[in-house]
Design brief:
Elements (H helix, E strand, L loop, with lengths): L1 H15 L16 E6 L6 H15 L3 E6 L4 H13 L4 E4 L7 H9 L3 E5 L11 E5 L1 H15 L11 E5 L7 H20 L2 E3 L10 H7 L6 H13 L9 E3 L3 H12 L10 E2 L6 H8 L6 E3 L2 H16 L10 E2 L16 E5 L2 E3 L5 H5 L5 H7 L1
Parallel strand pairs: 1-2, 1-3, 3-4, 4-5, 5-12, 6-7, 6-8, 8-9
Antiparallel strand pairs: 10-13, 11-12
Helix pairs in contact: 2-11, 3-4, 5-6, 8-9
The structure holds beta-D-glucopyranose.
The site of beta-D-glucopyranose has 11 residues, from loops.
Length: about 375
């Protein structure tokens, strides 16, 4: 009887610490709150990012709340402030602009851990960690896809290929790396005269004036569509475009829509790049419209971000399988302008019709979607 009471007592104490049974195994976050601030929903990936982050946080025993900022920094700042009021111990932020830095400073004063998620928080010295993909490589993969599709290695200056250039939002640090990665591949061909740029040509993103002219504020598809229509009616009126550098899938599809309305492209679309491996773009690639996308396994990014947060909150040394700590030239990806934060990079993969199975096999799509892509 004494023995039984002892056993029961031990069980009761164990239960009160949350170690009662298998359902609690691996939960060690102690119920602390992690605030998840995602930038927008008009680009599909972020909803999935938010949901995966939340699920991964809960798996590790944290409470988690996700909010979407509607591409409006003031709105996102209010959401982050509310996380702080609720006593969040960590914030994982996919920011909209550097206007987020004021709430990041508040978080630092409260000793709340801040992780910049996918997008660098620029002009801030108040946080230490950034987790993202190798964004320069994302651009290189786009540039290399154009190089292959247009067979630029064999192109001649007497019959040059034509390209027009688009960039992402000038408020998003990633847009600069995507562009510079792509141009690191394309500039040598432009210099040789075998590739001609139709419309504005910033050689790199450092040409702020021209970069602004090709940039797409807040990654808004209607802006890219209108700009493409204007190009088709003006600079690109009397040439046939062979390629269009588009920074992500949302914009790629808007650009393709504009091209389809032009008789010149009714039978053959230009080679259009993308990024995010969105289902609609994957289907478009399968159907021979969009040429390529860049697959970034955001489920892996979310999992890694929560592991990073967990290790920091527990004061452990950071070790993120599948990610490399940026060093050398790549450390620039984590330069906020005020300090260089520790930056963990995951690897992006270029996807054309030939390897659509990569995101499919990674379980990136719903079963019904995957079935359409096989
Ligand atoms: C992300 C891309 C996304 C874009 C628009 C970038 O910061 O890295 O994956 O397509 O924002 O939301």
């Amino acid at each position: 009887m004494k023995k039984l009471i002892t056993v029961l007592l031990i069980l009761a104490v164990a239960a009160s610490f949350g170690f009662a049974g298998p359902q609690n195994q691996g939960q060690s976050g102690g119920g602390a709150l992690i605030g998840l601030a995602m930038p927008e929903t008009h680009v599909l990936r972020w909803e999935k990012d938010g949901n995966t982050l939340k699920a991964e946080a809960e798996k590790r025993g944290y409470r988690a709340e996700v909010q979407f900022g509607n591409a409006d920094q003031a709105e996102q700042n209010r959401q982050i402030q509310s996380f702080l009021t609720q006593g969040a111990k960590a914030l994982i932020i996919g920011c909209i602009t550097d206007g987020v830095s004021s709430v990041v400073a508040e978080a630092a004063r409260d000793k709340v851990v801040v992780i910049a998620y996918d997008r660098l928080i620029q002009n801030s010295a108040d946080y230490d960690y950034f987790i993202t993909f190798n964004n320069f490589k994302v651009g290189q993969l786009q540039g290399q896809a154009i190089e292959t599709a247009l067979n630029l290695a064999s192109a001649t200056a007497s019959a040059p290929k034509n390209i027009t250039l688009f960039a992402g939002s000038p408020t998003d640090g990633n847009a600069f790396f995507f562009y510079d990665g792509a141009m690191s591949v394309l500039n040598p061909y432009i210099d040789k005269g075998v590739l001609k740029v139709v419309g504005p040509y910033p050689r790199t993103s450092a040409d702020a004036g021209n970069f602004q002219r090709i940039a797409t504020e807040n990654w808004q598809a209607p802006i890219a569509k209108t700009r493409m229509e204007n190009l088709l009616n003006n600079d690109a009126r009397n040439v046939v475009l062979d390629a269009i550098l588009a920074p992500n899938d949302t914009l790629a599809r808007a650009i393709i829509e504009a091209c389809k309305a032009d008789a010149k492209y009714r039978t053959k679309l230009p080679t259009v790049t993308g990024q995010d491996a969105e289902f609609d773009s994957a289907l478009s690639i399968k159907n021979g419209e969009q040429y390529m996308t860049v697959f970034k396994d955001t489920a892996k990014l979310a999992e890694a971000a929560i592991l990073l947060t967990d290790q920091i909150l527990k004061g452990q040394s950071v070790n993120i399988p599948g990610a490399v700590l940026a060093s050398g030239d790549l450390a620039k990806i984590g330069d906020t302008g005020r300090k260089v934060v520790k930056t963990y990079l995951l690897d992006p993969v270029g996807v054309t019709r030939n390897n659509l199975n990569v995101p499919v096999n990674a379980g990136f799509y719903e079963a019904a979607e995957a079935a359409q892509l096989r």
